[in-house]
Amino acid sequence: MTTNVPHTSRAEFKLLVRGFLRILAFLFVTAAVLFASAGTTDWPAVWIFLGMFLIYYLLLYLWVGNRNPQVLVTRAGSTRADAQGWDRAILILYALMQIVMYVLAGLEVMRYGWTALPPIWRGLGFGLLSLSFMIPFWAMLHNPFAAPIVRIQSESGHRVISSGPYALIRHPMYIAAFLYGLGGPLFFGSLLALLPGLVICFLFLLRTAREDSFLLAQLPGYADYAAKVRFRLFPGIW
After folding, report:
1. Measured between alpha carbons, how far is residue 181 from residues 84, 112, 205, 222 in Å?
2. How many Å is the Cα radius of gyration of the chain?
3. 43: which residues sit within 8 A by CB, 6+ positions away?
4. Residue 134 to residues 50, 80, 157: CA-CA distances in angstroms?
5. Which of 36, 154, 165, 192 could form a disulfide with 104 if both were Cys (CB 3.0 to 4.6 A apart)?
6. Residue 192 per-residue DSSP state
7. With contact defined as beta carbons under 8 Å apart, do 72 and 19 qualify?
8. What is the pLDDT of residue 154?
9. How far apart are CA 93 and CA 177, in angstroms?
10. Residue 152: how many CA atoms within 13 Å on its side-chain side?
């Protein structure tokens, strides 16, 4: 499903520019933390990792922005101040766990060389990371309300989306967080980084449960959708 947004207003354009600047800032901070903890920029896995992010965001703006532009405006215009208190806490912990994950990976793999995972594990990590980019991409092609925070977007006519990955599970964006939390450490070759990665998985389990309850109570039509699409996150399990 796409939205009928023929033109981007000046205000929306400013939001998109601001969103893209946030992305560049995120990539810069990510690179700085990884390379600083590693003590070197000669770490091919990080350059590939950053390249994956860059390609993802470029495709997001060029392809999703053309097919479903409202989702980019929605995401760029969202701030943590608009989030539910519990969601804000989860997002802060998520950001902290990402930093811890990067620091541990840099220290373990490059600075001290404590661990050297076999290539097959790094290949698995690359595959999981790749999926963690593909799934949100698919979801955002269908869902113009895919905001980075949990809230009812009454000003945009928020409604239930049941196409694409939402026909299979109710929270496909959060599957990507699991894949990222597990795939990132494996791709870097770090066992220690799996610890904060597992915390990230737990945080998004919690977020899924809280958001699902919130939507059942607040979003018209969501209860009927939940009765039809039974599984929140893992098909056949939960």
Report:
1. 23, 22, 12, 28
2. 18
3. 34, 35, 106, 109, 110
4. 15, 25, 27
5. 192
6. T
7. yes
8. 74
9. 13
10. 15
In terms of phi and psi (left: phi > 0; alpha: psi -120 to 50; beta: otherwise), the region of 179 is alpha
Tokens representing 207? Answer: 């977020």
Predicted pLDDT of residue 235? 85
> In this structure, what token pair is assigned to residue 152?
């009812």
Supply the CATH classification number for the domain 10-228: 1.20.120.1630
Output the pLDDT for position 3: 40
Q: What is the pLDDT of residue 2?
A: 38
pLDDT of residue 6: 43
Kindly tell me the number of DSSP H helices and DSSP E strands found in the chain: 9, 0
Amino acid making up residue 119: P
The answer to whether 106 touches 33, Cβ cutoff 8 Å, is yes
Rounded to an integer, what distance in angstroms lies between the CA atom of residue 103 and that of residue 192? 10
Query: What ranges in 43-193 are assigned the alpha helix state H?
Result: 44-59, 65-67, 69-77, 85-105, 119-142, 172-188
Question: Which portions of the chain are predicted below pLDDT 50?
Answer: 1-6
Q: How far apart are CA 26 and CA 163, in angstroms?
A: 30
Evaluate whether 133 touches 48 at the Cβ level (below 8 Å): no
Cα-to-chain-centroid distance, residue 53: 11
The closest alpha carbon to 193, from 133, 138, 144, 121, belongs to: 121
* Annotated domain spans of the chain: 10-228
**What percentage of the chain carries pLDDT values higher than 90?**
59
Between CA 205 and CA 208 the distance in angstroms is: 5
